[in-house]
Specification:
- By secondary structure, this protein is α/β, with parallel strands linked by helices.
- It has 11 helices and 12 strands.
- An 8-stranded parallel beta sheet has the order 1-12-11-8-7-6-5-2.
- Helix 5 links the parallel strand 7 and strand 8.
- Helix 3 packs parallel to helix 4.
- It starts with a strand and ends with a helix.
Length: 289
């Protein structure tokens, strides 16, 4: 099982030791042109998580390729590049310019206008442009995320990242005005975990693709639950803002949780939530007690 960061939740050049504690580092989303992002205020804490409306702030494709990517390669960890755009052609052009990385297609940012094409159409355009591994990052804000997963699998995706943030709103208590300048933003943190579990569970039943599960992971048990729902890897997000030791801690806690349930590895636990045999479930519960 790989342990990664959620895109935008870690600056590897500022915190290289944290990045090296992961099995792979995922970059901020890169768009063809430089973006300053949305106006502040664009991050706000809530009772059970965090709202952000960063708006895909990034240096743009050319500056990323010429300056940022070479410095990231010096970290010595496998790299995943998050690719964004506002049309399928833009996604594909960035994918064609990359080499020796895994690509995560950000198909679901809640803080910018989306491309007119469907997720499957964007994946198909990118598949035609590159042979690199393509992971489609999907939104939980859809009636049937499994249907979208099947569509991107048919279009050539090699894996899924589940889930992106979901749109939320918080109001300032004294003024009753939105805490973010944009109004709504992407909601992440502990409250996102049940939504992530549902998406991973549904997509694991619908496709054969490997899945990076993310959303509300704070502990080894959280990671194990995503694995049990069908994830093959896990990403840490909001927790990294408060706990730079989270990669090591979560990995150690996961090992303890696995041993307590009689699993030799995360691979053995993958998808156990899908088992319908009552005896199998009883045996797992007995091992934990």
């Amino acid at each position: 099982m790989l342990l990664l960061n959620g895109s935008g939740c870690l600056d590897a050049l500022t915190a290289p030791d944290v990045a090296r504690a992961l099995d792979a580092f995922v970059t901020k989303t890169i768009t063809p042109l430089r973006r300053e992002g949305n106006a502040p205020v664009r991050i706000a804490e809530t009772e059970h998580g965090m709202l952000n409306a960063i708006g895909l702030a990034n240096p743009g494709r050319d500056a990323f390729l010429e300056d940022v990517l070479p410095r990231l390669r010096e970290l010595g960890v496998p790299l995943w590049v998050s690719v964004g755009g506002f049309a399928a052609r833009e996604y594909a052009e960035t994918c064609a310019a990359l080499a020796d990385v895994t690509i995560e297609l950000n198909l679901s940012c809640p803080n910018v206008d989306e491309a007119a094409e469907s997720a499957a159409e964007i994946v198909a355009a990118c598949r035609a442009a590159t042979d690199l591994p393509l992971y489609a990052k999907l939104s939980p804000a859809t009636w049937d995320v499994a249907e979208t997963a099947r569509a991107v699998e048919a279009a050539g995706a090699d894996g899924l990242s589940l889930v992106n943030t979901i749109r939320g709103l918080a109001l300032d208590e004294p003024t009753l005005q939105p805490t973010l300048d944009r109004g709504a933003g992407g909601y992440s943190g502990p409250a996102l975990k049940p939504i992530a579990l549902a998406a991973v569970y549904a997509c694991a039943r619908a496709t054969t693709l490997p899945i990076v599960g993310m959303g509300g992971v704070r502990s080894g048990l959280d990671a194990l639950e995503l694995i049990a729902a069908g994830a093959t890897s896990v990403a840490l997000g909001t927790v990294l803002f408060a706990d730079p030791d989270a990669p090591t801690r979560v990995r150690d806690e996961l090992d303890v949780e696995l041993r307590a349930r009689g699993f030799d590895s995360a691979r053995d636990a993958r998808g156990i939530a899908h088992r319908t045999n009552a005896r199998e479930r009883t045996e797992v519960h007995a091992n934990v007690r």
